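User: Some background: our group keeps a shared notebook of sequences we're curious about, and every so often someone picks one and asks for a predicted structure to add to the entry. Today it's my turn. The entry only has the sequence so far, pasted here. Could you supply the structure so I can complete it?
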Amino acid sequence: MTELAGRSYVPKLYRISKSRAPVVDLLLRGIEDGGGRLVSCSFPAKKLAPIYIVAEDSDNHRFGLVVYPFTTTRRTTRNRPTTEHRFQIRYGDPGRVRRELNPVGHDPAGVDITLILAVDPETGIIVGLDPLVYAQLPMGISGYYRDTNAEAVMSTGWAWWAREKTRPRTPQGEGWDGLESMVGFRPDRLLDFARFEALATSLGFDTGLRLSLAEHFLHGRIGRHDLETLYGVSAATILDIIESNFRLGVAVRGSIAEHHLGNFLDGDPCIASYESIDQDGMPDFRIWLDDGRELTIECKNAFSGTYKDGDAKVETQKTRDSGAGRKYAYDAFDIVAACMFPVTKRWMFGFKWARDLTPWNKDNTRIGAIQRIDDTWVNSLNDLLKT
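Assistant: Of course. Here's the predicted structure to add to the notebook entry:
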């Protein structure tokens, strides 16, 4: 392990030049503009990324920020849309670095907060990426957001959206489909974003729940007890979920949704019994029906955005793997349950047989990353069992 500012959990450091100064300056000004106080910053004394920043907010709460900053530009690029803001995840020579392992540093104690930021010093827009999406920093990969996203940030100071990842022309592109969330904000909201990321990362939220949480940060920070109202469970239940699920803070996604699905299964008359499965690589639930059949269910969160015709979408791939390893085989589970809370703000589910899901376009023995939730999905297990 490499040591950064006394922290030994950061697995790799990257040399960066002083040309990164406008990006860092914008972040530091944002802390002060938001009413905070800068305590220390590892740059420029150490021209290394990630940059370690310590700040205090107006309540004297101290933040340790492990920041991977990248620069956004608004330039016309041949064969690219003119409404595009582009950033590239790049440190040093991408041809060399992308052939190496580039793991993202996360504090195992959960004290320091990891931020992956695309920063535009010219417009003053910062876009936060999901630090749990990638097992490795995808060096050399370009990211984009649109004029409409930038306008929303400039208008309200805080905006959120998701984009479908498309396969880049590099060896890292294998299995690069799926959804990722982006939260855009003005610099004075940097510590609010740190609060948001601390919650989203510690609870392992997937794209749908991250965007639902981001919506509640629109007008500022939220209190701890606001999570009770947001997710429909008591603070004690949230703590019970965290305590009973060893994957939280490591690779868990959507445990709140799983909790509500368990309540749903508990009241379903066609189910004789069920159990929650808390093992990596396994489905979320096993159920036994009155007729003796045993089935498994995988729980996923729908994405809050919809297709133009109103259909919702859900990401059906693993969160902690790469390439074809992220794609489920058709025998991995029997049923997928899509939690519709990010779309409807109600704890309801859509169900579909795994065998009927759209296959991956590279291997029809595996399930595709994104599924359209259309009229082939049903709202109860009883209706599904009739098909």
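Suggested note for the entry: The chain has two domains: 14-222, 244-385. The first strand starts at residue 14 and ends at 15.
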